[in-house]
Amino acid sequence: MTVELHKDDELAVLRLNRPDALNALSFDILRQIGNAFDEVAAMPDARALLITGAGDKAFCAGADIKELRNRRLVDQRRGAELGQSVFAKLDRLPIASVALVNGYAFGGGAELALASTFRIASPNAVFGLPEIKLGLIPGYGGTQRLPRLIGAGRALEIIMTGRNVKFDEAERIGLVNAVAEGDLMEAGREFAARFTRYSLPVLEFARRAVQRAGEMPLYEGLQVEAELSTLAYRLQDAEEGMAAFEEKRKPEFRDG
Ligand code: DAK
Asked: Whole-model pTM?
């Protein structure tokens, strides 16, 4: 399998393992990623998903360019929908995902990182949507997720020039959440540990509410927030959190 999935304590870890092609995304690999996301969704005790690429050169150099040529338009359309639907599974996972970007994250690789809940970069990370140089535009969500993350002006400039965005600029413009100086996997574990100790269903409410912020008018989004924040009160974890505050002790959340 080119896509490996394993458990590391409370974390699920997905690794793209095709370093000789810089972890480029063939359609078969896209399907494997989709299956792996389904497996993660069914893991009873995973509290976050880390996504990483094998080798030290690339997280993922994008769609497998060699596979993209000489296909019928109808197959291209299906290919775009496949990539979009696989990456959209990350939104629907019950747990947050963190892309650990070591080296190049180009095209579909950048889009996989963009679809993740969070992104951490190593100091050799380089992002880009170079599709324009191939006479294409991004097809796996880049035109929709990049502007939502960093604003339309910056996103368009990156998409229309196809230029590279190094780790430091990526951090400055909010494309990545953090830059890790040391071991990237360890940095990923530490990053995840900052939220995984909280109540899983409440974390999910937070993700759902913020996802909706990019999709709907303010007053509809506020309605969603009112519903989800009220729903949190129905959980025992909210009672435990507030009781622990009053009793000056650490809360013991039970994900319920
Ligand atoms: N696809 C296939 N093979 C790739 C690849 C890719 N994206 N990227 C690298 N490789 C392969 C190289 O061909 C090479 O293989 P061999 O020649 O050794 O067999 C090996 O990985 C090592 O790459 P390089 O020798 O090029 O390594 P360098 O360090 O010199 O350069 C690089 C690294 C990342 C700068 C360079 O490899 C590069 O520019 N790669 C391509 C980056 C890129 O353009 N990515 C794709 C963007 S387009 C769709 C619509 C749109 C899309 C998809 C679908 N539908 C409507 C269906 C667009 C998707 C994209 O992602």
From this structure: 0.98
Same domain, 149 and 47: yes
- Percent of the chain having pLDDT more than 70? 100
CA 205, 116, 85: angle at the middle one, nearest 5? Answer: 95
How many structural domains are present in the chain? 2
Looking at the structure, tell me whether residues 192 and 171 fall in a common domain: yes
Candidates 21, 12, 11, 128; CA nearest to 2 is: 21
pLDDT in tens, 163-198: 999 999 999 999 999 999 999 999 999 999 999 999
Ligand 1 atom 25, closest CA: 21
Is residue 171 in contact with ligand 1, taking CB distance under 6 Å? no
Under a CB-based contact definition with an 8 Å cutoff, are residues 93 and 40 in contact?
A: yes
> Distance from the CA of 3 to the center of ligand 1, in angstroms?
18
Phi-psi region of 71 (alpha: psi -120 to 50; beta: other; left: phi over 0): beta
Mutate-to-test residue for ligand 1 from 18, 22, 76, 134, highest number of ligand atoms within 8 A of CB: 22
Q: Flag whether 66 is in a domain.
A: yes
Q: Is the CB of 59 under 6 A from ligand 1?
A: no
Q: In terms of domains, do 171 and 210 share one?
A: no
Q: Active-site residue 131, yes or no? A: yes
